[in-house]
Design a protein that fits this description.
By secondary structure, this protein is mainly beta. Helices cover 5% and strands 37% of the residues. It is globular and about 55 Å long.
């Protein structure tokens, strides 16, 4: 699949897959200087990349890098970033430091991953009643331990 892109800032890097089996491409921070994130602090990290998805049947998801999350407590402040097919602006990574120590994001550092996923838009239809299932309306913890 072809995804067109533009680099919107000097120093921006093309999203790239680290290995042949990678499911997502790395996104790099485009910063003029290192950026220190204290515990609990959030920041929008520019990537200098804008993309054009092939159509509304695709979405781009910005996901956390597991190493940064596990070792340093860095996560996406919104969980997962959703990039709609009609968005043409720069991709930014909203990071939050959930760790106990400050972390410094370096210019050019890999800060997130970009995953392309097919989507289907639903036709939401009102109903008087939904079909029964064995689970029913049981919510959090209904299948065991939370």
């Amino acid at each position: 699949m072809e995804v067109k892109f533009t680099l919107t800032r000097p120093g921006a890097q093309v999203p790239a897959y680290a290995t042949a089996g990678s499911a997502a491409a790395d996104l790099h921070a485009v910063l003029d200087a290192p950026l220190r994130l204290a515990p609990g602090e959030r920041a929008a990290i520019p990537t200098g990349v804008a993309i054009q998805l092939p159509g509304p049947e695709w979405v781009a998801l910005i996901c956390a890098r597991s190493g940064l999350a596990c070792r340093h407590g860095l996560a996406l402040s919104n969980g997962v970033g959703v990039i709609d097919s009609d968005y043409r602006g720069e991709l930014q990574v909203s990071l939050v430091n959930q760790g106990g120590e400050a972390y410094t994001v370096q210019p050019g550092e890999r800060v997130a991953q970009l995953m392309l996923v097919p989507v289907a838009q639903a036709l939401f239809t009102p109903a008087d009643k939904l079909d029964d299932t064995s689970r029913g309306s049981s919510g959090f913890g209904s299948t065991g331990r939370l």
